[in-house]
Write a structure and sequence with these properties.
heterodimer; A: about 350 residues; alpha+beta; MetI-like fold; 14 helices; about 10% strand; B: about 375 residues; OB fold (Dihydrolipoamide Acetyltransferase, E2P); 2 domains; six-stranded mixed β-sheet; six-stranded antiparallel β-sheet; binds adenosine-5'-diphosphate; binds magnesium ion
Chain lengths: ~350, ~375
Amino acid sequence: MNRKVNKKIIKAAKDTVFYLFLTTLIAGMLLPVYFIVSLSFLSTREAYRYPLPLVPALKTDFELTYGENGYILSVWDRTDKEYQTVLDTNEVEKMEVYIKARLGTKITQEEIRAEIARLENSGQESIFFTKPRSLLYNYDTFFKVTRDAVPALIRSIEIAALTILISLSIGGLAGYAFARYIFKGKDALRFSVLFVRMFPGVAIALPMVFILAKANLYDEPLGLSLIYSVGAIGLTIWITASIFMGIPKSLEEAAQVFGGSKLQAFMRVTLPLALPGLAASAMYTFLGAWNETVAAIILTQFKPTFSVVVYQTLLGAQGNVNLAAAGGIAMALPALIFTFFLRRYINQMWGGVTV
Amino acid sequence: MATLEIINVTKRFGRKVIAADNVSLEVHDKEFLVLLGPSGCGKTTTLRMVAGLEEVTDGNILIDGVDVTDLPPRKRNISMVFQNYAIWPHMTVYENISYALKLKRMEKSEIDRIVHEVADMTKIGELLERIPAQLSGGQQQRVAVARAIAVSPKVFLMDEPLSNLDAKLRVSMRTELKAIHDSAKATTVFVTHDQSEAMSIADRIVIMRHGKITQTGTPEEVYDKGANLFVADFIGTPPTNFFDVELQRNGKGLHLVNSYFDLRLLPENEARLKGYNKDQLTLGVRPENIILVKKSKSILDTTALVVEPQGSHQVIAFRLGEKIIKIVAPALPKMEMGETIHLDFQQESLRFFDPESTLAIGD
Ligand SMILES: Nc1ncnc2c1ncn2[C@@H]1O[C@H](COP(=O)(O)OP(=O)(O)O)[C@@H](O)[C@H]1O
Ligand SMILES: [Mg+2]
């Protein structure tokens, strides 16, 4: 009896510790993500408050009174829980710019004039009104302010796709050869392939400027994806070789015996079985190419990649962390979408198909 | 309706390995031929060359008289059951079986008919929608067989198809495979290293060793008339007992003598050895041909070292010098360990071998 109770208590304690650990782990991973996502939606004014508001506001509360220079505009401060004066002016235009840019709130000059008229007609000392936030203001601004943001985004996608194409077709074939054939110098080659990755990107990028310039590929997406492929192919060979090794040769041979050509056997049997692994490998390549900045800065001039653009905004936008956060999220989003689509295939590796 | 001819086929891997050495054999129409030999003797390589999965270094392979030596597997009209089954894990059983039929651009209804027919034949009709991961080893084996017979091949190749099954299933699948062969009537080459499997299933057995064929014959022939020491030793359990003896001619007749016994040969056996003029000989006697007799009739008296009752019979082992000799005796009377036994050889089943060439003499 006593023992049973003891066991229960021990189990409960173990569970508690386990879940505490798990929660901490997850929180540790998710908190920074949450922080930057939330930050990317805050208005510039709120982004510099301390402590930082935990959730972005959906609306802004204003108080309008008479002032020395015309009208005093105050906004509700969520941190200090009071209305704080932000402007004392006569100019409607100035108010509009401030409300839009600093407060990330939707308003038009007509609306401001209407509120002023309401104040004067009311005969009271002050009036209150509320306007909705434009939540995507930071993103909007990021793409407007940042030179070339949209073309850079397209270029980055193009580069990542090209890199996947190059490294998966060359690296995948090489991986297949590593897995299926015995040839001279196989082991030496296997290690030299990883050797390339030991050098930092810059070390490769600098001499590459000259080579690419000669090949007319400097400042071209293809040039950059070639550079990225050099690094990616090595890893791709390793990953794909181990995938192909895991697929018995006899499966392919059976496909040949039962009516397929060598190519058909590969396409219908080996490739579908390798797909989860190939998807994982493609994801590595994508993330590598997508996030790479150093070589991209060196090897581009008028056609920067998205990572370069975000980087420049980060440096330039000293007063605007929320803008940088929006850039960062904009950068992460395509990677997230890509991963999401590949997830289906990568999951296959654990469920469904077992070789 | 097909014959298979392998003509002087050699396969080398690199410089040193000769996996198949000038192999020639013919498989008759509808015949169930078993390629038998210890592991590493070149059975798989030979089979794979027939399938077209391995290039031949030298020689020719003919199916129905047509030279297929340089054709890819898909153009040879063969099918194969692989040792590890090699059924495709990402396809259902139905898709596995219908794969080849689809590539042949058969009508859907025709494919469906064939799939169900072979599935019934191999007793997997219930499993058609499953994927291989949901099947037991025995079931996967049946799928592999079903897939192979669905294409109605000219030649049906099987590489140790039963070796991954547990002992009991192996024996029952043996019988079933034989039955399937009898109804499908495909010319079959079946590879195994298990001599009892070969004996029970084959129309004819081809025994290979070191890449060469050492004997071809029906199960009875290779059992009763092993062409050399290797075959006599390899076929049958317990294996043939061998005795090194001296030929002695003394007045009345021919004797085989060593330090344990003196066997006087009957005239028939004496006649078999007429042309043999060396005085050393290796005598081979099957375990069931060494019989328990009364003391007065025995040529050899010894004590039983181990007695293994097997139900229908008993295996008695005794020591003769360095060697352990095993005999198979009727279950009764039951022998005990340490008991003195009196033995004689059945003369009609004696085998003689030249100890130098290891070849059989006097057949
Ligand atoms: N791909 C290969 N490369 C080199 N040697 C091989 C290859 N395949 C088989 N061998 C060699 O050929 C011989 C025969 O092999 P195999 O045909 O598989 O024998 P079995 O099927 O009778 O066990 C063995 O010595 C084996 O090591
Ligand atoms: Mg083999």
